[in-house]
Design goal:
Elements: E1 3-4, H1 9-46, E2 52-53, E3 68-75, E4 81-88, E5 91-102, E6 108-117, E7 136-143, E8 165-167, H2 172-179, E9 183-190, H3 209-233, E10 235-236
Helix pairs in contact: 1-3
């Protein structure tokens, strides 16, 4: 029969607090997983949603909404930003971002044309197809820019003068300063086009639900360990055992 010595109030409080915190963190991660699944579902439906004018949502789109918009204007085809270190189907490449001026307004809407893989054994930058400079109508998902992650090594953008410019993250404030123009608070992810060489398989830039569930399992495991340690540390050894 397992016997336990009387625990101190501090040991009880510490174990209870640790158990409660770990369980709460696990539950929070499960809720985050459900939120991310809902977000992914909304994003998947965005490309098939009815089109609405960009002007209707350009400033007040909720953070977790992805409006499907239509916009008229012109590309600034001479200025292209290549977001480096992107992958698709296990291939390394870039995503091409081009400023677009909607309806002759002053602000620049940064448009993501899509993914292109690097070329050859030396992984050189791909040749970009010509970008039309005429008046165009674009449709796509109005979404937040990709997250910057760790900004190691500083921003290389101010040191570049030749176009296209290779960047390691998209910062709309920095790009606005580089263009000497204000930018829209979001970017446009163009709708898929079978005739385009660009790959446009968009996904929201967020942690996947599976990772949140893995973190939840980790926190629940810590809660279990806290209980096990409490009983192990307070177990009384049976001195009559041989």
């Amino acid at each position: 029969m397992i016997r336990l010595r009387r625990p101190s109030p501090f040991a009880v409080a510490l174990t209870f607090a640790g158990f409660a915190i770990f369980v709460a963190l696990g539950v929070w991660q499960l809720r985050r997983a459900d939120q991310k699944e809902s977000l992914l579902a909304r994003f998947a439906q965005a490309a098939h949603a009815p089109l609405q004018p960009l002007s209707a949502v350009q400033e007040n789109a909720p953070p977790t909404s992805y409006p499907h918009v239509i916009v008229h204007g012109r590309f600034d085809a001479r200025r292209v930003y290549l977001l480096d270190d992107q992958t698709h189907a296990d291939r390394l490449g870039i995503e091409a971002f081009v400023p677009f001026t909607p309806d002759n307004r002053g602000n620049a809407l940064l448009v993501n044309l899509g993914f292109l893989p690097r070329e050859g054994i030396d992984q050189s930058l791909p040749q970009l197809p010509p970008i039309p400079e005429r008046e165009l109508t674009l449709t796509g998902i109005y979404a937040p820019p990709p997250r910057a992650g760790l900004k190691l090594g500083g921003n290389p953008l101010p040191r570049q003068h030749a176009w296209p410019k290779l960047v390691t993250w998209i910062d709309l404030h920095d790009i606005g300063a580089d263009l000497h123009r204000a930018t829209y608070p979001r970017v446009l992810l163009l709708d898929a086009d079978p005739a385009s060489v660009y790959v446009r398989q968009w996904a929201p830039d967020t942690m996947p639900p599976a990772r949140h569930r893995a973190y939840a399992l980790q926190w629940f495991t810590f809660a279990l360990i806290a209980l096990v340690m409490f009983f192990v540390l307070h177990r009384v050894r049976d001195e009559r055992a041989p």
